[in-house]
Amino acid sequence: MTSEWAVHGSRTIYTSPWVELDLVDVEPPGQPRYEHHLVKWAPVAATVVLDDQLRVLMMWRHRFATNTWNWEIPSGIVEDGEALEAAAAREVEEETGWRVDSVEPLAYNQPVGGMSNAEHHVFLAHGAEYIAPPVDTHEADRIEWIPLDRIQDMIDRREIVAGVAVTGLLQLLARRPTPSAPEAP
User: Fold this and answer.
1) Name one GO molecular function term (predicted).
2) Quick one: average pLDDT of 145-164?
3) Range(s) of the domain holding residue 62
């Protein structure tokens, strides 16, 4: 028996350059058909920028939807035809004024898989060069380099709550090499 849902069609209820809301005619296995909401977003690219002092480039900002202040990593929507890596590097520069030369994949997630096609692609950049004040001046109240060894406590205290930031930072912390124990004589 298959557990894959049958999709019989869909209709768009709302669309904008940022988001689309569809009602999808679905049929779960052994269940009656019904209309399920599907929120469609463009992919998001984000970057954890780590310098040679093991500090992370972070932005302090307010999110009106949740009425919360928190630290975030640079992130944004991938533009049509834009490569994920290019979008990640562009967002760092636009939102912080720092330029990264290259990024490498760090994490991927689907934050709301049950009702959205949303995809978050998180990259890692080693080092950055400050080039100018940020172009997107509305993105952050402060931009700071925060020591990596403070990140876990900040997540625990809910000072970092954005899903894309938590995903990337926890992945970086999980991959961080641990000091080896001294060998026994």
Assistant:
1) hydrolase activity
2) 97
3) 42-175
Helix, strand, or coil (residue 17): coil
Q: DSSP alpha helices (H): ranges in the chain?
A: 84-96, 151-156, 163-175
Q: Is 125 exposed, middle or buried (0-12, 13-18, 19+ CB in 10 A)?
A: buried
- Predicted TM-score (pTM) of the model is 0.88
Residue 57, SS3? strand
Residue 144 — φ and ψ, nearest 5°?
Answer: -140, 155
- Whole-angstrom CA distances from 150 to 23, 70, 122, 159, 172 are 43, 14, 20, 11, 13
Q: Do the bridges between strand 98-99 and strand 55-63 make them parallel or antiparallel, or are there none, so unpaired?
A: unpaired
Pair (162, 119) in one structural domain: yes
* pLDDT(50) > 70: yes
